[in-house]
């Protein structure tokens, strides 16, 4: 026991001070960790609730609504893009000085700097000095179509993918993307379309990070009538992917779709986990995954392009699904992804029904925004 006299000793006083600071630091750290965990749990719960609503909406509306036209879906993008361009020509032809205004419109249309440069070069070359609205519109339209035609044929996906025989068995897909972009919804749509066309589909619950992820995927598999691989007490997503490959091969599945945890493209350690997952899949089935499908939210605009760039560098993305086009004015990001990364846009999400996963048709897309 320390006597009052002892507390006057500088060494004892310093020791008490250090101990007090240490205790305070530990208490502060403990409180900070609890706050972080509570915040992360809240985010996870909100995301889970959103996805549950999507599942319920999918079931309720999938056979009721009329088909959605792409022109209607892209009306906001068209209004914000071609509408602003047309306003430049309210007084007739524009001069070379007005080209900077056109360039500004393109920059603010979520196309990306490289794409803007490509389009501006096309305008000055093809319009040949006659800068009227129709010439500029035609130059932009032709160049956008050329941009989509120059994407690399990295994917085996085609317009008739769901109905034609699979190119390899099992055809293995990894579906990746950041949180909240609609990966689970997209997987549900893919599974439903393949299953409806007579394919034997296995969905692997590779998102072991969120507590409710497996339950949500189970709900989707029930809605779509496909098998799910969701081993109990397995926390390593690579292990889930490996055993799913074994099951798909041994039980003769046509399609294996592997779900993955949402990954922030700015977190290198999380991206490394996805790289590991891909290596494990390739070890289980040489040549797999045959498709690395990146799901991006069109509403995020330029951020979607940044996500695509990072995921492509890490995993070699073979195709992009652009979701939530309905209601956004940022559909131009599809052109940016195709131009800068040469990755094909294979599908676009235009609603909640299974049939609302629409094959991307470049000509129709360009005509809908120009």
CATH class call of the largest domain:
Alpha Beta
Biggest sheet statistics: 8 strands, mixed
What is Rg? 26 Å
Low-confidence stretches: 43-64
Structural class by helix and strand composition: alpha/beta
Question: How many E-type strands?
Answer: 8
Q: What is the CATH topology of the largest domain?
A: Rossmann fold
The CATH superfamily of the largest domain bears the name: P-loop containing nucleotide triphosphate hydrolases
Shape: flat
User: How many domains would you count in the coordinates?
Assistant: 2
Seen as an oligomer or otherwise, the chain set is single chain
Strand numbers in spatial order across the main sheet: 3-2-4-1-5-6-7-8
Q: Provide the residue-averaged pLDDT.
A: 81
Continuous helix count: 13
Distance between the termini: 84 Å
Strand percent estimate: 5-15%
Going by CATH, the architecture of the largest domain would be 3-Layer(aba) Sandwich
**Series of secondary-structure elements, N-terminal to C-terminal:** HHHHHHEHEHEHEHEHEHEEH
Portion of residues within helices: 40-55%
Q: Any chance you could write out the topology, listing elements then pairs?
A:
Blueprint: H1 10-61, H2 70-73, H3 75-88, H4 99-107, H5 113-126, H6 133-149, E1 171-176, H7 183-196, E2 201-204, H8 213-224, E3 227-229, H9 237-250, E4 255-259, H10 268-284, E5 291-297, H11 302-315, E6 319-323, H12 333-341, E7 345-349, E8 357-359, H13 362-369
Parallel strand pairs: 1-4, 1-5, 2-3, 2-4, 5-6, 6-7
Antiparallel strand pairs: 7-8
Helix pairs in contact: 1-8, 3-4, 4-5, 5-6, 6-13, 7-8, 9-10, 11-12
